[in-house]
Amino acid sequence: MGEPTVELVYFDGCPNADRAREQLRAAMGESGWKEWNLSSSGVPPGLRRFGSPTVLVNGRDVTGEDGGNAAMACRADGVPGAELIRKAVDASG
């Protein structure tokens, strides 16, 4: 089936973005995910509904949230842990 697509959605200034990267590294090593900065142009419109930071595996938030956020905002639920990210990646394959 191939490797899953893993993405980090964030924006500059969100204090949890670096922590999300740490959890991604713990789950996946140094590579294997794409980053989308909501502060930049060129972000696919469908990703703009997610708060910062969001980790997606095959387009789905690893926390199970639906991405119903209409405005750029930091997530109140913090950062998904490495184990949750690993489980989502394993379940996708």
Q: Widest sheet: strand order?
A: 2-1-3-4
Instruction: Give the helices and strands as they follow along the chain.
Output: EHEEEH
Based on helices, strands and strand pairing, what is the structural class? alpha+beta
Rounded to an integer in angstroms, the radius of gyration calculated over CA atoms is 12 Å
Helix content: 10-25%
Task: Give the end-to-end Cα distance, rounded to a whole number of Å.
Answer: 7 Å
- Total count of helical runs of at least 4 residues: 2
Q: Biggest sheet, in brief?
A: 4 strands, mixed
Name of the CATH architecture: 3-Layer(aba) Sandwich
- Multimeric status of the protein: single chain
| CATH class descriptor name | Alpha Beta
Overall domain count: 1
Q: How confident overall, as mean pLDDT?
A: 90
Unreliable spans: none
CATH topology group: Glutaredoxin
Proportion of beta-strand residues: 15-25%
Shape: globular
Number of distinct beta strands: 4
Short note summarizing the structure:
It contains 2 helices and 4 strands, in the order E-H-E-E-E-H.
Question: Can you tell me about this structure?
Answer:
By secondary structure, the chain is α+β, with helices and mostly antiparallel strands. The chain has a single domain (6-92), classed as Glutaredoxin (3-Layer(aba) Sandwich). 25% of the residues lie in helices and 16% in strands. It contains 2 helices and 4 strands; from the N terminus they run βαβββα. The chain has helices spanning 17-28, 82-92, and strands at residues 6-10, 34-37, 54-57, 60-61. A 4-stranded mixed beta sheet has the order 2-1-3-4, with helices on one face. β1 (6-10), α1 and β2 (34-37) form a beta-alpha-beta unit. α1 crosses α2 (82-92). The chain is globular and about 30 Å long.
